Amino acid sequence: MKRIGIIGCGTIGTGIAEFIQARLKAKARVVALCDIDLKKANFLSKKIKPRPVVTSMDNLIKKSDLVIEAAGVNVSAAIAKKAVLRKKSVLIMSTGGLLKNPGLIKKSNVYIPSGAICGIDGLKAASIGRIKSVSLTTRKPLKGLKGSIDVDKIKKETVVYSGTAQDAVRRFPKNINVAATLSLSGLGPKKTRVRIITSPKYTRNTHEVEIEGEFGRIFTRTENLPSKSNPKTSQLAIFSALAKLKEVI
Ligand SMILES: NC(=O)c1ccc[n+]([C@@H]2O[C@H](COP(=O)([O-])OP(=O)(O)OC[C@H]3O[C@@H](n4cnc5c(N)ncnc54)[C@H](O)[C@@H]3O)[C@@H](O)[C@H]2O)c1
């Protein structure tokens, strides 16, 4: 029975805990929860049977075989490092935090779900040969960018960012983990190009990935519906974490 600890009890953390309880209970159990907002951890712990302990990050890592990070880019690298040091497996959602420590994803027990985009498998295969370019064009509804830009000023389709994945993650840390996931799987954060476009008319988080290299060309387009409880997080991102869990547990 794998002991699972979840850091970050918001939309993704809750989805993962409920999935383990409903669909993976023969193989895994959520034993510990951690959140800077204690109320959230306590609320989630009441939904899970047997009830997981609510504890500190360090204690959670000690108690778990597999640590799940669903907290934020400011803590994801520290969590991955601590877990690796203690020889625990770790699944990272806030991939933007790993850009400064890209070596971490080379560790065999650090798992990165594909997130809200398609094409990561093809990009990894293409990376065996020469890659010319990797670009991501993300279209987000205004409410998905709230807090990162002044959404009230935007009245028509507007390009709000064009540049490297590295700067995109710095300027939109809550919105663009897909850019980090893409760059960690291919050309790196300085060479992966990102455009973020918004409009009052958009209703879906849409990601277009274009990859060119000696293999030819890949183009993928993913039209995501936002998750019910967090408009910044696409439902597919949650499903990608659950699919990765099914694979590794
Ligand atoms: N890889 C991807 O494609 C992808 C897609 C969507 C979201 N994400 C990332 O996954 C993370 C979780 O997303 P979500 O939708 O569940 O967000 P959320 O806001 O619903 O939940 C995050 C939770 O983490 C807690 N938290 C924040 N900082 C913390 C810290 N330092 N220690 C402990 N807990 C902390 C918050 O209190 C909150 O309960 C975010 O960083 C988000 O950017 C990644």
How would you sum up this structure in a few lines?
This protein is α/β, with parallel strands linked by helices and 249 residues long. It has helices spanning 11-23, 38-47, 57-63, 76-85, 120-126, 165-171, 177-185, 235-248; strands at 2-7, 28-34, 53-54, 66-69, 89-92, 110-111, 131-141, 158-164, 192-199, 205-213, 216-224. The strands form 2 sheets. Strands 3-2-1-4-5-6 form a 6-stranded parallel beta sheet, sandwiched between helices.
Task: Spell out the key features of this protein.
six-stranded parallel beta sheet, binds nicotinamide-adenine-dinucleotide, Rossmann fold, 11 strands, 8 helices, 2 domains, five-stranded mixed beta sheet
